[in-house]
Specification:
- The protein is built from 9 helices and 47 strands.
- By secondary structure, the chain is mainly beta.
- The strands form 8 sheets. The chain has a 22-stranded antiparallel beta barrel. Strands 18-17-28-25-24-16-19 form a 7-stranded mixed β-sheet, with no helix packed on it. Strands 3-9-10-7-8 form a 5-stranded mixed β-sheet.
- α8 (750-767) packs antiparallel against α9.
- The chain is globular.
- The two termini are 31 Å apart.
Length: 920
Amino acid sequence: MKIPASLLLAVMGLSLASSGSAQSTNNQAAAAPADSEVVSLSPFVVNTARDSSWRAATTLIGNRTNQELAKLPMTVDAITSEFMKDLQLASTEDAARFVSGLTVLPRFESRTDDNRITYRGLNSTSTSSRNFFLWYVPVDTYNIERLDFNKGSNSLMFGNSAPGGQSTAFTKQPRSYRFGEVTASVGSNDSYRFQADFNQPITKQLSVRVNLVERKDQTYVDRNFQHLAAQTMAISYTPFANTRIRIEGEHGRYARRRADNALAIQSVAATGLGLSTNNRWYYTSDGTVIQRTSSSPAAIDRSGAGGLILPLLDGMTQSVLLPNGSSKVFSGLGKTTNVLGAGDYLDRPYNVFTATVEQQIGDLAIEYAFNQQRQQQERNDVSFGTTSSPPVVQVDGAGRPFMDLDGSNTYKIFSNAVQTHRLTLAYPFELGHWAKEYLVVTGTHSRDAARNRRFNLVNDAASGSLANNIVRIRAYLDDPAYGSQEYWDRLLPGNLASTSNFHASLNEVYLNTSPLVDIRYSRAANATLSGEYFDGRLVSLLGAGYEKLSRKIPVDSIYTADARGLYAAVPDPADAPDMYRYDPKYDVDANTLVAGLTWVAVRKPNFGLNLYGVYSESFNWQAAQTFNGQNLGPITGDTKEIGIKGDLAKQKLFYSLAFYEIHRRNAAYSWTPDLLSNTQLEDLFNPNGLLPSDPGYFTVTTGLNNERRTVNSEEKSRGFDLTLQGQRTFGLQARATFSATKVRATRDFTAFQALLDAAIARTNAANAAGGNPAMAESATFIANAQNILLSNTNTTEVTGLRSAPYSGSWILDYELPRRLGVRLGASGVWVPNYNVTILNGVPYRAGGSHQVDFYAIYTRKVKGARLTFNFNVRNAYDLTNGNSARRKSGALSTSPAGGPNYLYRYTDPTTFTLSTSVQF
């Protein structure tokens, strides 16, 4: 680990300086008053005053007002700010690893920042919730007070949400007293994080809170990082005793350079140059430019590599069969090598503004809130090695290894401008002396304007349609400069050398399968009635909601390009209303229901037991598409759940156990094994010689969410979740989770089957007497497609982390005698082997892990301030894999021995982080 000593010394100096300042200005900083002004005024702001260390007491998820977690008839895991601070959890994904029933996909295995969390075996949406508003951007915890994970269907609270569950983040709110905290950390691979939290009352009625973060996470892989710079200001103003105005604004930017160091190689070399994609201009790292059409260059150079896809990590060797009958042995690259290069990017600038007015009129509480969010994704969706994971190396006829980056529909700028208005009314009333009711009614109107810009990398110096002149960049791995910054820089689109007949540029293209402009209007109303009966022994939650969605998109004529392949600019709807129409397919609505009961069965000092049951529903207005461009429409789901909650030993131990069944309909399913890239699918499903510019050309949908291998499916998830939370006793504080999940899916391969049947028919006709052999499709591609079909239609099992039958986590935190100010902690996250692939209908399990982390915390008071040092060791040891350098991650084919031909990924190395913070 390389720790910049100057930065660490500066942090310590800043801490001590801040401590001195705190001593001179506020000798009572260590004892901040309770959040009484929040509790008394606002039922709509999460109440953290009763949170005790790692345990939260209340949540807003039941009806958008504070309710006791123990009495809520649904499962909510609340992650407190102290828990996040102790374990140095910087994101929603970090926290989700310690929530029962949730699994998190490692960042190296996800090209997107979204959809990494599964809830009870079901994929999440690409969005989350913040203060119950739609949130597109990854969540950093620098300005977050609490993270609440709701498991099960709940569109009543979240509106557009997935059936498995949804997280919501509650931001830090201004308080009526002065305090501050500054934290800085340095870690392995020159990672660092600096954040600050300052709260300042201006007058008795006005308070301001500012949060800042500057963060850079780097890994051991070359040129792989994620950087975030963000700032938040929140203002709270109480002009009258029963009126509060809250304003919050945030500006930030994520910059991510993605990486992949896992590698695979095809076992049979191409016969010639391996220029297998038609109508492309190949630009190689040698500086050579070759135009590939249906008739040139020679046929020997137009065929691609084939055979099995074999793993090729550091320390591995594989033999590749060359056209002359000999074999060439290739060795894996070093584990720090980023095979995606230096230009694989995902940048996300964003800003958000929220204004809230709360008014209390007698017992009636009213909240009006306005939220505006603007976010943008600037990214490339295809990299070297196409879209395969892990990336695949091919070998040409001369034995040269290479990886291609195809410029078709690769570069994208997707943006959203969201405006939401929400009005909430909350009113308590009693029915005699035995029943207390709390009615909450909410109305919401939102406008989400998305602009989806796509660009081809084309040769604009060539004649004809630009769609037939797409650039494909080839990186030869035997170049002596391979892997260097200079090597990757010369392959960036803007640095490709120009000639008299070659000039690379980006050409914007429109796809009617995913509208250029997509404006969605949502109008929703819901009501919840929470009741307590018989002195709180029986608690009810009943809610119903209705949401209507409409969508405005450009008229069909905008998707027609001129002969050159250029599209006319599309103005905004306000400037050209005639160029837009409402999409009848998205004139849809949905009803949602929640009905639950909690019975407080035992209420004693040494033992508490609550029994509950709930039925809930959800809908998700997804933008997902299948491989052939079909819009899937909304996902619907319902959850049936029963469980128990309570405490033991005078509230020293809290427990929650839930049994559930979730039914999800109209969901996107990514097939496995992943045997065909997007270009190979297009090659197979289009007749040979058909140009991309032809209206009948079949185009595979591509994106970051595996669209190119997605079909429709229906899924069911059954299982149970267990969470145990122990309060500190004899110095020990502990938390443990365990869950069991079984997911089954039925997939729709009708369109895939029809396209494959047509390809087989063309091939049979081409190979028959009198046929044209040049029209025959690749036998390898046909066999791979048949394997995909067989592997996914004769089984209901799923693959990936969500197929893990069990999962769990644990944390032990021991505090030495208080005068020492030292705490020692250990934690683990366990996932057993899961289905990494399904071959010919048979699932194969691997990939399990049990990673263990350690931390040490030292706290002391310095001149009235609180100074804390936290030393964290991540991935200290894997109890499942030991010190193994790699793990099985998938399999694309059957080995000659009959078993799966496994692919591998590297295990994550141990990393270290040292942070210091001062509270004043």
